[in-house]
Amino acid sequence: MTHRNWLTTGVVCAAIAFVVATGAFFHSQQPALADSRVMILAVDPQPLVAVTKGGERSFSIEIADTSAEREAGLMFREEMADDHGMLFVFEEPRDVSFWMKNTPMPLDLIFVGQDGKVRAIKQGEPQSEAMISPGEPVRFVLELKAGTAARGGIEDGDLLRHPAIGTAHN
């Protein structure tokens, strides 16, 4: 009887160890979330292009298209290249609000409609809990370093081109 109890205990312990190890593995495969670690997503192979009155501006981007990725965004990121940004992709046009809590960099938030046209450009202050919203439904938000939109001549009505935006027209 004692042998059977030890065997059962061993099997149960092995099963628990397997579940814990599996959970740890799959958790480590997810992007780092808002837990004081920077989330770095893969840079999309296609650049995002802003078509402005002064010409085209190209940006390398990370795409945040899941709830977890959109929630973490650029939180805890302390630096970013001038020609780099993060594109937030929502399933459908909606009212969105962003805040800058846990984001130490000032940002430009470019709110973009389903058609790829810029609807509003707002500034985000580091560590602020103030809500930032365009005041109308949008499908995309592009975050860039503060001042990048002005330096690049990006204005309301300009067009952003990227495959993630191009597929949204359907």
TrEMBL record:
<protein>
    <recommendedName>
        <fullName>DUF192 domain-containing protein</fullName>
    </recommendedName>
</protein>
<dbReference type="InterPro" id="IPR003795">
    <property type="entry name" value="DUF192"/>
</dbReference>
<dbReference type="Pfam" id="PF02643">
    <property type="entry name" value="DUF192"/>
</dbReference>
<dbReference type="InterPro" id="IPR038695">
    <property type="entry name" value="Saro_0823-like_sf"/>
</dbReference>
